[in-house]
């Protein structure tokens, strides 16, 4: 940071002075053991960093005042916004600083609409457009239910809905809909942001655009999102959901790339969702992310995995309602015609729209009941250029992963279109038109995560050694050089935005971008 961090003792003194100074306007700044414990860990359960205090704000003004106070003192304390705590390597922590619990604002409805308000407006080209003003501390599952009351739903999703709006927009927000609708950050019209200087700013592509594009995918470095205006569309009622299995990676990749080439937002013959995943090791073909395969098929699928080592699963979905229920099967049939999946290994479901979007929740509840949710999660999420995905399959999946034989968690692998991303935003993706997201969603015992972390390091080392120019999603680097390499040509802009919006480097120290 260029200045020494204050000691925890000094921060506690600052905390008590601050809380007394501003107690008249309702601050809830705590340093009790339970508040500190909850804010010192995250979903990863690998790192633990104690803040000096936790702010449970009752208004946006309280967040702004806290940041301004830190700016005023000679040695500023760090501040980190925390949503649902789903980061995996301490990204939302503030060692010896203050963590802001954004979910405390869930039920707060100020004039700038931290609650959910659904509106319609007319664009100059006379197309109807729908949006929702949503608080940064709102969970996407709550956004879904609130917008459905109006017959609408967000355009872009993450696979897991119990994440905050501000949290996913600070990264990107991806899922199987991204090939067609882009990440969640590509579906935002406007935001309210409290900057690293404590200023409350409304920004959009037209107004305060540098802040707007910086914050989206900006890893919390420039400001705290308190409101986002997100794109909506008429909500479908049901989902035709299909999975197909492959034993040949080339065919698997070729079919995925063909399917995502039909990707116009208004193309009725396009898929609404496409994801791929791996079946490896022996055991149940289903996992905590999805229980799709009928139990009667387990033995056949397990035999395939035993024979080939890796089986590739392609998962697609088509949404429909009462107006399209007579055509959905024909459209799906035409899309899947000529694909090279294994005969006899096509599985189909028809489910309600909400059940499909919230499909991961049942897996979470099962793991929680077994005491396997709050455990270490040494995840590794990568974007891999299309031109090197076969090399990645051969060297990483069939090489490192199969040889180590310790991966039992879900592994995702599916392509996206770069044109659906806005290069003005802070998020970083490979330069090629098509790239793949690969996610190793590991879970482990508290004494076992280091072996999986070593595998992650071996994967990164392999990619660097053979020149596969990957980009990390939900990135984690220990050095500024690592971050410079990550941002590449965007690094200078990223630095300038930091100097402009958070010059004292107060926000999001857990990312370890500008502080040691």
UniProtKB/TrEMBL annotation:
Keywords assigned by UniProt, alphabetized: FAD, Flavoprotein, Oxidoreductase
Catalytic activity, EC: 1.5.99.12
FAD-binding PCMH-type domain residues are 47-235
Query: Which cofactors does this gene product need?
Result: FAD
- What's its catalytic activity? N(6)-dimethylallyladenine + A + H2O = 3-methyl-2-butenal + adenine + AH2
Q: Which Pfam families match?
A: Cytokin-bind, FAD_binding_4
Q: Does the keyword Oxidoreductase apply?
A: yes
Record bears the keyword 4Fe-4S: no
Write down the SUPFAM superfamilies for this protein, in alphabetical order.
FAD-binding/transporter-associated domain-like (SSF56176), FAD-linked oxidases, C-terminal domain (SSF55103)
What sort of enzyme, by top EC class, is this?
Answer: oxidoreductase
| Protein family | Belongs to the oxygen-dependent FAD-linked oxidoreductase family.
Name of the protein: cytokinin dehydrogenase
Organism for this UniProt entry? Prunus mume (Japanese apricot)
Coding gene?
Answer: LOC103340690
